User: What shape does this take?
Amino acid sequence: VESRYLLNEAKNELQVMLNTDPYEDYYSTNAMVLYKVNYNTGKGTAVNPKSKLDVNAVYSGGWGNNLYVYNKGIVLDSNKDYNYATGKAFALTSAGKTFQVHSKSVREVTALGTDKVVIID
Assistant: This one.
């Protein structure tokens, strides 16, 4: 796991965003897969193996409860910083469902209670 920010300790499982192509660091590739690992059995399951997420989209996002909020379409500027003026915020659930959260990219995500998130654009 590349960073502790890619881990989420949920109630019954550990949720981990893994880069399946960690050596690619020039192009933003669709290489991020959400895995969930059951605490009791240790069994891991890939949530989105056939619809991998863009690396920059995931790295510019974060966890909010059991949702991973990411910025689809975000690009790097000339300084290799995220250009939050591009992209839209989407969320991936631990069941593999995706939905749009906001019409712009978001900079911060945090949990609010057990089933809500707060986003800052």
